[in-house]
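idk why but the lab printer keeps eating my pages so im just putting this in chat instead. protein + manganese (II) ion:
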Amino acid sequence: METITYNALEKKVLSYTPFDVHKLRRAYIYASKYHQDQKRASGEPYIIHPVNVAYILAMMNADVDTVIAGLLHDVVEDTESSLEEIEKKFNKTIRSLVDGVTKMTKFSSSNKKELTASNIRKIVVSLVRDPRIIIIKLVDRLHNMRTLEYKSLEKQQEKALETLEIYVPLAYYIGASKIKDELENISFRYLKPSLYGDISKQRDDLIKETTNLLNDTLVKVVGLLKKNGVKVKLEIRYKDTYSIYKKIITNHKFETIHDIICIKVLTKNIKDCYLALMYIHEIYTPINNYFKDYIAKPKTNMYKSLHTTVFGPDNRLIQFQIRTFDMERVAIYGLTSYWFKYKNNACIEMQKDLENNFQFFKSLKELDSTILDNIEFLTRIKQELFSSNIYVYTTSGEVIELPNGATVLDFAYKIHTDVGNNMVAAIVNNEAVSFDYVLENQDRVRIITDPNAYVPKEEWLNSVITTKAKNKITEYMKENQEKEDKNTKN
Ligand code: MN
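predcted complex ->
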């Protein structure tokens, strides 16, 4: 891998924002001084790592405080430096960012499991405080994964697994798909090297086999769209190895995966997306089941695009992903795309967006406010947030994200506490179902409520799996009990 120097970092940051160069340089000198006696597992000077982390952040157009925090992210954890000193020499924001990414080590009753759990909890809930902490942590992990070859086999597998369990879902939730894809593929390579090799080979062969054909297709599509006044930029993409693997383990054959070959169509505005779709469908026959309009109904991490799979030339299945340049930036960078959009205040916009638009954010807050034990918290986020989720619809067509195994009663509580408490019946895809009915992807759910008829009962607890539903049912029963007690006393 090419070595990133401090000068390259400085140049990179200057390329997108004017800033106080001395401050960045001071941070570099400060970190170099504290890390001077340390080496990476590769034998290189330790400072290479923070410089790379800062550089990756700069490639995302991160604000200067975040880049500096990237340079300083390991000094408090690994050296004699302190948060107080960082605040004095730099500023409060940088202190708070560095604090967020610093592991807790001093613990009264510290067994390893508890310590790991509390550290992961600290990272995950830092999203509530300042989303930039998660981003620094993700980039830190990314650089460590890129350089994992120098670690022992045991360490490699441990890190790869932890990355898939914790960091990949986090990256997914904030829409940082570029980081997510790279983390997944590296982890997969360490966890299942031979399978990784097999699938990569098949993928490489497919690329060789189809390159000419696809280049011809690009020319044809661009020509057609240009003739009709739609300006576009096209890119060829092949599904990455880990995503192919995920399809294969759910019973797909490599040959029949419908979106291995993808052509991205980038347009200036939304109208051109639909026009492009129309013209593409005119020359290639679409497969109805694979058409998705994520522009009208974005994914829960704010991803927007039109997807259509068509019978392309040579009868190959080709997926077209059609979106605007703005949507493309969100598709790649997610929440961090605000760094490209706003010079200042990007962080405030990120926070607003998280609170208003990202569904998992509320679930995360709910878990954090109700579960005290760190190990239980870790188990629950893995089950509820990080395992594969299902997506169902409300009657008004809103997409609701729930953990796998969630029931209609979980759905009701997810909509609103009152909807859960007053649920009397549920209708899924036009059929009445029981309270413990387990929802599936794409289900259309209607909850019927009656404020007078029913109240939550203890056995409802057996019909739910989400923390919110469990808490609300327990809460209701407790309040009711207290009321009854009072009444009896009177
Ligand atoms: Mn680090």
